[in-house]
Amino acid sequence: MVKLISENKSLPLRGSVLLFLALNLLISTITGLNFLSSHENFPSWFGPVFLVAIGLLICVICFYIWQLPPTLEIVKPPTGYEVCLIWLLLVFSVICTSALHKFFPFHPTVIVYWPEIPPRLNILKYNFILTACSLLVLLVLAVLYSLGRRSQAMTGLVILAAIMLVPNDNCGNYFNLPWIKWMGASPLMFMPNSVVILIGYCGLHGIWPRVGIFLMAAINACVFLLGLGHLTKVVW
Questions:
Q1: pLDDT digits (tens, 9 = 90+) for 215-234
Q2: C-alpha angle 188/194/200, rounded to 5°?
């Protein structure tokens, strides 16, 4: 029988998690509003699909902001199976996101492509480094968690969720253009990853772990399909 966490234990880094959820909420809302003025540049079927998806993402973020408890009182810790699924989905989230850039830097031709990146897109090199390092960091954090260094692993997740919101993409597609005009680069590519990490953080603390697993898988799948849509030129 699963033992309840009965002591009045504060949720670690609750303020930081709320802050980064709020930033994700802001970025998602701005993205939805920006899309309304550029939807004609995409296939007619894509507009409603994207607006529904971004609307659901906003609802998910609001749900976690609302549900994030000040303490872990009467919260059940996740089962071992749930913990494994959460970490697996955290790792897969980076691979799914790399589909937006043709699976670079994990594609073997990255060695050839890297020197050919034009100076105006040099920030793309940072993007590739962030992608590779994010995957490596998540694997390291998963190992730390499994070795009982849970506090360090959880803190690492929150830090990574914050780093992923730093603008890191200046590819001139219609999603990024408004952000590029405002700040020179877009935070959109890894924004869903940041949300997935924060959901995973909550799940690992026993906050709706099963719901979190479903939502993490759904977000990963949507990002992967969007990446395939870009890769095949079906969407843009």
A1: 999 999 999 999 999 999 99
A2: 150
**What span, in angstroms and rounded, lies between the C-alpha atoms of 196 and 204?**
12
Give the single-character DSSP code of 104: T
Residue 186 bridge partners (DSSP): 169
Tokens (6 digits) for 150 = 């849970």
Q: Which pair of tokens denotes residue 2?
A: 């699963």
Using CA of residue 231, residue 95, residue 130, residue 213, what is the dihedral sign?
A: positive
pTM reported for the whole predicted model = 0.94
- pLDDT at residue number 121: 80
State the Cα–Cα distance between residues 134 and 192, nearest whole angstrom. 13
Provide CB contacts within 8 A for 188, sequence distance 6+.
Answer: 27, 31, 169, 175, 176, 179
Q: Express each pLDDT in 207-216 by its tens digit.
A: 999 999 999 9
Dihedral angle computed from the Cα positions of residues 63, 222, 160 and 89, in that order, rounded to the nearest 10 degrees: 90
Burial call 108-127: b when 16+ CB within 10 Å, e when fewer = eeeeeeeeeeeeeeebbeeb
DSSP state of 172: -
